[in-house]
Amino acid sequence: MDVGRPRALADTLRSLLARTLRLEEVLPFFTSHVADVLRLENKGRLLPGGDADLAVLGAAGEVRDVMAKGRWLVRDGAPVAYGPFERGRERP
After folding, report:
1. Cβ contacts of residue 26 below 8 Å, gap of 6+?
2. Phi-psi region for residue 58, left (φ > 0), alpha (ψ -120 to 50) or beta?
3. Would you write out the chain's pLDDT as a tens digit for each of its 92 residues?
4. Cα–Cα distance between 59 and 49 in angstroms, integer?
5. In DSSP terms, which residues pair with 71 in a beta bridge?
6. Domain residues of the chain, as ranges?
7. What is the CA radius of gyration of the chain?
8. DSSP one-letter code for 44
9. Beta carbons of 28 and 36 less than 8 angstroms apart
10. What is the pTM of this model?
């Protein structure tokens, strides 16, 4: 099933959009519904005072850019920040 792959959610979103489902129909299953189940009040939706993590999608639903905690992690579809044990790790 490949559910542990980092791209699993993005691939699933793109697959759903390719089936002509509308973004506004499927996006809550990746954002607000998950936040509600996990009781994360500041996540999953755009709210005043909420966390401003962002994912920018391309026309086909592919992830183009990702920002978390005010820091770009992915730009133009390529990682620009890495975890401490990943290759290509950013230098401080």
Report:
1. 13, 16, 17
2. beta
3. 566 676 888 899 999 999 989 999 999 998 999 999 999 998 998 888 888 788 999 988 888 999 988 899 999 999 899 887 776 654 44
4. 29
5. 68
6. 8-79
7. 14
8. S
9. no
10. 0.72
